[in-house]
Amino acid sequence: MRVLILVLALAMSALASCPNSCSGHGRCTRGDLCECFKHSDETTPAYVGADCSQRVCPYGRAFGAIADHSDDVSHIELHANSNFDGTPHAGASLAKLVVDTNSYKLQRSANIDVRVLSVSGTTVKIQWRLHEHGKYSQPHDATAGPTGFANQVELTDANMLLPDFGVASHETGIKVYFEDTTGVNENNVYSFFIDHQRGGAHKVGEPNTAHQFTECSGRGTCETSSGRCQCFPGFGGEACQRASCPGDCSGHGICQTLKRFVKDIGLSDFEYSLPWDAEKVMSCRCDVGYRGPDCSFIECPSGADPMGGADGLGLNDDDDMTDARDCSGRGTCDYSTGVCDCYQGYHGERCESQTTFV
């Protein structure tokens, strides 16, 4: 029979001193745990870490689908069990201790000890401790029987563990229980290590699940000592929230948002402001005389094809648009110099003249 021991979630109540006095960036709660300060919205944390020493970087709307906590991976390593005095015992098998991270997710790795205080039938009283804090918690009364386990019990201040080290609010934690109580004795200590790999960093469940607000917009890494985002190549902004223009437009243009481009072309009946990429995707608007994705190409003189061919828009001359062909369509442009190299039989600055043979 499975006996639920406790739900280890993300807070605890017990008077104690906190690590590093919460670095001056949080308040010390009962149980050696720091409650780190949040931003003015009272939702987004400003600092994280066991001692609130790590700064949280700016948030921006994600460019793509950012993984959520359903993608988290928690690898459990059970260590040798012992007696409270440190001597090994040949009692309950480690296999009887079950650490379940499926229903509640952690946001960090942790070394944890569970100490059995008493066993009475299917009722067990335990304490737990984090290795980094050193002190054991106040005693916890076990919730006995499979019904309690199936219902996942009600989380209360009396049976919560681990401060929130993540960057969002989640119902997170772990469950610990025994398959049965055979060989589980007073003063047995069960030690385990959880190697946690976080799959995502934002709160799930919002309508726009593909572009949630997340740290560094999912396009950079957070430097926790300074709270600054280190953006991946091709992205910029304090939260890496926008794409960078190639080569900073080579000094021959300005970097504009899609929203600005739509406005500049004069579509008065269309405002491009609601789509998620309106102010995130950037492109170069080149100065006169330059072109290319990074405005690095020097334009060559252009004009109408002296042989009457289609103009640069793929149209015939009868559209009165005859000046859109580089080198008049009778030469190639050297974009590094902006000089036309005319085909044989043509000449002129823009290859607009045909050689006449007499």
From TrEMBL:
Keyword Repeat: yes
Pfam families, alphabetized: EGF_2 (PF07974), EGF_Teneurin (PF23106)
InterPro entries registered for this protein in UniProt: EGF, EGF_extracell, Teneurin
SUPFAM superfamilies registered for this protein in UniProt: EGF/Laminin
Domain of life: Eukaryota
S-S pairs: C231-C240, C342-C351
Keyword Disulfide bond: yes
Signal peptide range in chain numbering: 1-16
Domain (EGF-like): residue spans on this chain: 206-241, 318-352
Alphabetized UniProt keyword annotations: Disulfide bond, EGF-like domain, Repeat, Signal
Protein name: EGF-like domain-containing protein
